[in-house]
Amino acid sequence: MTQTDLVRSELESLVETIDVKTHFKTPRGIARAVDGVSIQIRRGQSLGVVGESGSGKTVLSRSIMGLLPRNGVIREGSVRYRGQEIGNCSDKEMQSIWGREMAMIFQDPMTSLNPVMKVGKQISESLRKNLGMSANEALAVAEKLLHDVRIPEPARRLNQYPHELSGGMRQRVMIAIAMACGPNMLFADEPTTALDVTVQAQILELLSEQKRDRNMSLLLVTHNLGVVAGYTDEIAVMYGGKVVEKAPTKTLFANTKMPYTEALLSSIPRLDQPSHSRLTTIPGRPPDLVNPPKGCRFAPRCAYVRDLCLNEEPELEQADSPDHTYRCFYPVGSPEYLERRVELTRKGELVASEGSN
Amino acid sequence: MAGTGKAHLRDDQNVLLRVEDLVVEFPIGRTGLKVNAVSGISFDVLKGETLGIVGESGCGKSTTGRAIMQLPSPTSGSIMFDGTELTTLSGEAMREARTKIQMIFQDPISSLNPRRNVRDIVLEPLSIWKRGTTAEQLAAVDKILEHVGIDPQRAAESKPHQFSGGQCQRISIARSLVLNPQMIICDEPVSALDVSVQAQVVNLLEDLKKQFELTLVFIAHDLAVVKNISDRIAVMYLGKICEVSSSDDLYRNPAHPYTDVLLSSIPVPDPTVAVKKVVVDGEPPSPVSPPAGCRFNPRCPNASDRCRSEEPTLREIEPDHFVACHHPLTGGEAPVSVHFK
């Protein structure tokens, strides 16, 4: 690969998935956790993957990183990293990618850290293994990393165990571990869900700062659209194993097409609404991934559902702006949508969303 | 000692719960040290009102909720519930009093017994207190399950693991309602749920509150949720109350710098709103040795020498809006009191 080729490929995409499917064999049948997802992440860009529990967002990030068990998993489609196929790599081949090229931060910082190993050792482990540092070199780098993630008294922390740290500090240690070998691609799976709001804001700030300083790409998995709004360039909304809407962050919020995205947005309690205002809910539950509904997977819960939605599955449509795609027959703003909306408002079923729009 | 003050307590016939100078301390082994979980807080809740208690982990909000239930009994202070002083009740009398105050916990799945079917879980309070005949009890259970949106037929056949997190929380709510309590203490009831489900549970609590004429104490760390459901909010920090106000007023006009921090940390679901720079760093200090003066002073952007030595008392800065701060964001400086220790 020549220098110009390299530059071009980085402009194009660092990570690309084409029609990735990850299905699990379960006693009840095959669960289609991820069912044909194509996304691209460019260098230095951040993508938010949003959805409810069971939408496949976590499985997607693990599929890209190759962190799923071999047994009982059916994998299809292609995962490319810098243009090279890594979807079929063995764990051994992936070891050169894990840590140095891609790293992951998990949701629960308590269970993801080893409780009987000192923090310093946990951070220096990958430095020694991947970069061949000596124990002392690695500890020195670990101290610098702890300093970078703003842990007070980093030298003392190296000799502490995870239980001696608070939840926010443990998450910072996780970030330090993920950053240790300077990855180009960072996956953060609900990195702030277990944390207080004040600490959440600090951690998100830290992640976007690290992303900027290291020109790293970030895939942020979360169920909270509020979290991704301020910290991502692009958002993919997942439902029932599929991406149902994808757009640059500003476009997604300003020009929402998919009723599911709209429903997710309006169910967030907002500070600018008076108290006791009725929250918009999404009735029902996410679909059964073993027997997903025929047609649009969101149709059974959608307020704007019509016969066509129940029988045919919508293809990915292109919205007005080039990077904006969605899966819906009657998107927000279409005549059928508006007609139904008038009916719903008359029946008084749309209350809170009126105020927010 | 400058206390947290009681200026905000109301002299009203309708006060259902009145907590005064509540202190909860936990000794640490034989070290002689103690965790100051709650350090002298006072608040009241009127009949039919929802009081929200917000704060970060470790601020003592859950401990406060549990202290009301005498789980465990507080170190000192008074808890008057519907004319009865709960702290001095005997074990048996307290057991009876707890039928009127029920609690809902954060993790809906682990707060239900995994080996029993759901109908039995909801029925248990009735059978313990021998309320009515078995047929009447079953009818009451089915009715309450329908109220919370759980199919009674399915409940009779299923165990908790067969329900989703949101449904388990509905079951917990049904269990707490079955004895017809006057008050429910909700300890982070929606923080483990997806946003869409969270909205369902919040709406459900609002509906049930009206139907059953309940009084709620709603404990959570997410100010957006608390604001939506509460009439009045108490903001807690490290075992103390910083600010008490009606919920709309608190959002419009936060007076305590800590309230402002909490409000500005909430991510706004709108990319055109610039992300606010985090104004405080770090996390609350250890409640084993809380800082002198105002407990927020080490993290406060406006801290002065006075904040480091003199503890602020709650005072009214506008009608029904109380703040414990020397230099609040609105309402002017606290008058310097002639005060010697």
Automatic annotation (TrEMBL), chain A:
Q: Which residues cross the membrane?
A: none
Indicate the segments annotated as coiled coil, or none if absent.
none
Which Gene Ontology molecular-function terms are recorded?
ATP binding; ATP hydrolysis activity
Membrane-related topology note: Peripheral membrane protein
Q: Which GO terms describe its cellular component?
A: plasma membrane
Q: Which GO terms describe its biological process?
A: peptide transport
User: What's in the keyword line of the UniProt record?
Assistant: ATP-binding, Cell membrane, Membrane, Nucleotide-binding, Transport
State the SUPFAM superfamilies in the record.
Answer: P-loop containing nucleoside triphosphate hydrolases
Per its UniProt record, what PANTHER family does this chain match? DIPEPTIDE TRANSPORT ATP-BINDING PROTEIN DPPD (PTHR43297:SF2), OLIGOPEPTIDE TRANSPORT ATP-BINDING PROTEIN APPD (PTHR43297)
| UniProt protein name | Unannotated protein
Q: Which organism is it from?
A: freshwater metagenome
UniProtKB/TrEMBL annotation, chain B:
Has the keyword NAD been applied to this entry?
A: no
Question: GO terms for molecular function, please?
Answer: ATP binding; ATP hydrolysis activity
Key words, A-Z: ATP-binding, Nucleotide-binding, Transport
Is Nucleotide-binding one of the keywords?
yes
Any Pfam family matching the protein: oligo_HPY
CDD domains tied to this protein: ABC_NikE_OppD_transporters
| Signal peptide location | none
One Gene Ontology biological process:
transmembrane transport
The residue ranges of the ABC transporter domain are 17-263
**PROSITE patterns, alphabetically?**
ABC_TRANSPORTER_1 (PS00211), ABC_TRANSPORTER_2 (PS50893)
- NCBIfam families for the chain: oligo_HPY
Q: Which family does it belong to?
A: Belongs to the ABC transporter superfamily.
Q: What is this protein called?
A: Unannotated protein
Q: Give the species this sequence originates from.
A: freshwater metagenome
